[in-house]
Amino acid sequence: MASPCRCDKTEIEASVPADQSLFAEADRIGRYLIGAPPSSGVKVLYAKAMRTINIELDPVEQRLWNVIMHHPFAFRIIDGGLALVRPNSSIRRKVYTMLAILEASPEYCDYFLPQRFGPLHMVNIAFAGVRALLAAVVGVVVLKLMGVKGQ
Amino acid sequence: MIHDYIVVGSGPTGAQAAQTLVEDGARVAMLDVGVKDDIYPGMVPDADFTSIREQDERQHRYLLGTAFEGIPWGGVKVGAQLTPPRQFMTHGTDRWIPLESGNFRPMESLAYGGLGNGWGLGCFVFSGPELEKAGLDHGKMKTAYEVISRRIGIAAARDDTAPYGLGDLDCFQEALKIDTNCHALYEAYRAKRGTLNQQGFFMGQPPMAILTQDRGERRKIAYKDMDFYSDQDMSAYRPWMTVDDLKKQACFSYHGNRLVVRFEEKEGHVAVFVHRTDTNEKEVLRCRRLLLASGVLGTARIVLRSFKEGRARLPLICNHYCYVPCLHLRMLGQPVEQLKTSMAQLVLFHDEGGAHVDVAVASLFSYRSLLLFRLVKEASLNFSDGRKIMQYLQSSFLIAGIHHPDAESADKFVELREDFSTITRDKMHAHYALSEEEAKRTRERERKFISALRALKCIAIKRVYPGFGSSIHYGGTLPYSRQDKPYTLAPNGRLHGTKSVYVADGSGFRYLPAKGPTFSLMANAHLVAQNTLLS
To answer: Considering only Cβ atoms within 10 Å of each terminal Cβ, which end of chain A, N or C, has fewer?
Structure first.
C-alpha cells in the first residue's frame, strides 16, 4: 500500500490566499455532499483540481454560486434544479469534481462502496428520493424566477 | 538493407501476424508509433479494489488521474470509459492521424499494443455463416482460432452460448468465477430458459482472454477488480506481451516512433515511407513483403495515399452500439463480494432466426470499479441525494452493452481529403448513417433485449447511445474480393493491385457480426501471415 497522504495542515497553511477561497468552497460542497466538513487533504486536492481544470462560471452561474455560498440551505434546491435545467452547468461540474475527490479518499469510502443495507435503510433512501424530487421541482421554479435559462 | 518482412502496427493483429512469421523463422521488422504510458506504470498498488479504496491515500492519482482527466464531464463520448491509466491509448491520434466527421467518432490508437490495451477480452468464434458473410474461409479460420487460443490463453464454459461464442474451440481453461449479481441473473435465466430460448435468447459466460491457471510469467486471475486500471499479474492478455516476447528473438526487430505514411512497390521490393514521430524526419525502409496491420482506419490512410488515384471513397462497417444500465431487483441492498472481475461476466445472444447469422449480443457487467460518481451523474438528481440513492442501488446495477451486426451500405464510408494544416497534409473524413430500415431494426432489437432482461427481473433505466464508432469495432474498408478490383483484398489478404502488400487487420471483413471481432481479427492475421510465407 502507498504511504499516507501528505496533503496535511502544513500544506494548507502554506497555500496561497487564492486557495483559501477554494478551501471555503470545498468545505461548503463537502458539507452539502456528505453532511460533514471534508478533511484538509480533500480540500487541498479540490483546490488543486480547480486550478487544473479551471472551471469558469458565467455571470448567471456566478450569481447562483454566490447564493449557494451565502445560503447553504439553497444548495440542494439549486443543484436539483440545475440537474434538470442545466445539467452541464459549471456549478454542477464543481460539485461533481468534489464528489469524485471524496470518493477517491479512503476516509470517505464508506459513503461510496456498496454495503449491505437493512430494511430501515430503505426508508432512508425513500426519503432521499422524495426529497430529491421536491428539491428538483422547487429548484426548477426558483431558477425560472431567477431568470436562469436552460442550455 | 532490405527486410524480409515489415509488419506495420503492434496491436492484436500486428502482434499475431509477427509471431506467426517469427515462428516460421522469418526475419521481421515491426514499425510502430508505439506510444507508451509514462505516468501510471507502477502507480497502481498490487491489491484488490476494496482494499485500495479503504487504505490507499494516493488512490486519487490513478482513479481520477494526476491531471483529473478521469473526471469526465459533458455528453457521453467515445473513450470516456477509459480510466486514466488507459488513456495513453489515444494519445497523439489527433496530431498524427486526424479524423473529421459529423456522425462517426471512432477510437484509434498509436499505442504500443494498440487498441488491444483497452480490449474487453471477449474471444468469440464467428459461426460458419458469419465467416462466409465476412469473406473468410471457415475451415482455415477454425484451425487459426485454435492457434490463437493456445497463444493467448482463454477461459470459457461450454454452456448455452457455446454455439454462438465458443464454436468448436478445444483449447481453453476453466471459466471465470461470476459474482453474486451475475450469478443470480444466470440462475433466473436457467429457470426461464425454455421460454427465452424459444424467443431466440441464449445466456452464458463469454470466452475471455484471461487466465484461470498460471502460464509462464502470467498469473491466473486474482479477481482484484482492477482490470480497468492495470495489467498486473498479466492474467489478461494484451498484445504488448506478445511484442515484448518477440523482442527477445534475434530475427525480430521493433522500430518505435515510426508512423507509416505510404508505400511504393519497386522492382523486387516495397519502399515504405515513414514519418518519425520523435524527430519529425522522413525515412524510407525497404522490404520484400509488407503486412499492414495498423487498424482499419490506419490501413485505409496508408493504402489511399499509396495509389495514384488515392481520393477514392472506401466503405466502412462498424457495430453500432448502445448500453443500458439496469437495476437487478434481486440485488437491492445486497453486499458485493470483495473479489470479482470488472470484465463482462455474462453474455446474452439474440438469434431470432436461429440461423447463427445476424445475431445481436449484449455483454453484461456488474458495476463497481468505475466508481459511483459516474453513476450519480447519470441520475439527473441533486448530487447529495443522488449519491445516497446510487450507493444503495449500486450492488444491483448491471450494465448491458448491446452490439448489433453491420454490413456495407452507401451511407457508411471514409475518404482522405487534402488538408495542409496536418502533418501528413491530409485528413480522414468519415460518414456513417443507418438506413431507416437498419435504425428501425436496431431499436426493435434493443426493445427485445430490454424485454428479455425484464423477464429476469432486471429493469432497464435508459438506453445510452455513445455515438457511431463507439463500439471500436471497424472493418470493411478494403473488402475481400475474388475479382482483381482496386481497393479490395484477395482472399489470401494480398492487396489487389500489388504483388507484395498484404493486409492483416479487419479491413477485408465484409460483414461484422455483433460479437467482438478481436479474436477473429487475430486468427485472420495469423492466416494472412501464413499466406505471405507461402507466397
So the answer is: C
